[in-house]
UniProtKB/TrEMBL annotation:
Listed PANTHER family: COPINE, COPINE-9
Gene3D superfamilies xref list: C2 domain
InterPro entries linked: C2_dom, C2_domain_sf, C2B_Copine, Copine, Copine_C, VWF_A, vWFA_dom_sf
Coiled coil feature spans: none
Protein known as: Copine-9 isoform X2
Organism: Vulpes vulpes
Protein family: Belongs to the copine family.
Cited PROSITE patterns: C2 (PS50004), VWFA (PS50234)
Keywords: Repeat
Ranges of residues in domain VWFA: 148-349
Domain C2: from-to ranges: 1-104
Organism superkingdom: Eukaryota
Composition bias, Pro residues: 385-402
Segments of this protein annotated with the region Disordered: 379-402
Length: 402
């Protein structure tokens, strides 16, 4: 909705008022809870506030006739904002105003009691009001959207010799390595959203037999034509097999595998497929510029990137790619959406050595942002979920594989 005001009371000694609105939802016990504040419009008695969105449940808890109270204040730097006046409405009343301007009188009860000739402290006009249905992650999954899961594992020498217990890739007969635990934790949950359970799995930063060619994107199953592994157990099996045959080397390049998945994601724009790339790394990245460029380009596609950092390294570069605080940019271009989620595995390791608990904690946090990232893509493309398929309808076509 968008609102403006007219002829508000002047509250500042020098200059005019700096008005803003505060919206309150009424509670069952007669109290009010703040549910929205507009921005402050400086030095005017006739402000026009920016349009804003608010969930219906936040405004009225789904009760269309519940009172919504709106206070008008004059902003003061010291926080002692001056009360100009108030008015009440309801969701139903607001929604009726979709096709016409509705004008509310702003009343100050104290002034009304004191001054006989008091009319009002100005007016607020509802300029626009529209309601959009907001779909959930589950709506898209029910409608047949598939999550296509791709794995990329860091095979660079900085991980240490896999035959040594100090290596992050150490294949102990008694417990999984950090790499294997991260892969299993995330993969076992995400595979339930993928109907064919076939996962392309790659390694990067290794020398491949027999001629020792360095590769930044080799299939773990050694099959260039079909990099798919059957289920997470198939990915783990291929990972262990690769550790026995390739030589850990370097450098650490993320961009090739990000671009590989992006090429597959670029072919599907109807919302039927969403790609998730899991990169597991010790965090020493050599192609930061190219990786940022790849992420910015991929941010307009139906894909997300999860980076799990293993080992003791400082992960500043990974935090920068995450984009939670500052959106990733490359050559002046900013990522359209935040599509990267980074977590350091060490934050989830259970001190008592309970691997199941460590994996559960990791999976919960790692996958937390995927639903919102999928929804942000669908919203920007105005893609609505398909109706859930009936029992005899045909299945979703097989995904384009990276």
């Amino acid at each position: 909705m968008q609102l403006c005001a007219n002829k508000l009371d002047k509250k500042d000694f020098f200059g005019k008022s700096d008005p803003f609105l505060v919206f309150y939802r009424s509670n069952e016990d007669g109290t009010f809870t703040i549910c929205h504040k507009t921005e402050v419009v400086k030095n005017t008695l006739n402000p026009v506030w920016q349009p804003f969105s608010i969930p219906v449940r936040a405004l009225c808890n789904g009760d269309y006739d519940r009172t919504v109270k709106i206070d008008v204040y004059d902003w003061d730097r010291d926080g002692s904002h001056d009360f100009i006046g108030e008015f009440t409405t309801s969701y139903r009343e607001l929604s009726k105003a979709q096709n016409q301007f509705t004008v509310y009188e702003v009343l100050n009860p104290r002034k009304k009691c004191k001054k006989k000739k008091y009319v009002n402290s100005g007016t607020v006009t509802l300029l626009s009001f529209s309601v959009d249905s907001e779909f959930t992650f589950v709506d898209y999954i029910k409608g047949g959207t598939q999550l296509n899961f791709t794995v990329a594992i860091d095979f660079t020498a900085s991980n240490g010799n896999p035959l040594q217990p100090t290596s992050l890739h150490y294949m102990s007969p008694y417990q999984l390595s950090a790499y294997a635990m991260a892969l299993k934790a995330v993969g076992e949950i995400i595979q339930d959203y993928d109907s064919d359970k076939l996962f392309p799995a790659y390694g990067f930063g290794a020398k491949l037999p027999p001629e020792g060619r360095i590769s930044h994107q080799f299939p773990l199953n050694n099959n260039d034509e079909d990099p798919n592994c059957a289920g997470i157990d198939g990915v783990l099996e291929s990972y262990f097999q690769s550790l026995r045959t390739v030589q850990l080397y370097g450098p650490t390049y993320f961009a090739p595998v990000i671009n590989q998945v992006a090429r597959a994601a670029a072919k599907i724009s109807d919302g039927s497929q969403y790609y998730v790339l899991l990169i597991i790394t010790d965090g020493v990245i050599s192609d930061m510029t190219q990786t940022k460029e790849a992420i910015v380009s991929a941010s307009s596609l139906p894909m997300s990137i999860i980076i799990v950092g293993v080992g003791p390294a400082m992960f500043e570069a990974m935090e920068e790619l995450d984009g939670d605080d500052v959106r990733v940019s490359s050559r002046g271009r900013y990522a359209e959406r935040d599509i990267v989620q980074f977590v350091p595995f060490r934050d989830y390791v259970d001190r008592s050595g309970n691997q199941v608990l460590s994996m559960a904690r990791l999976a919960k946090d790692v996958l937390a942002e995927i639903p919102e990232q999928l929804l942000s893509y669908m919203r920007t493309r105005d893609i609505q979920p398909r109706p859930p398929p009936t029992a005899n309808s045909s299945p979703t076509p097989a995904p384009e594989q990276p």
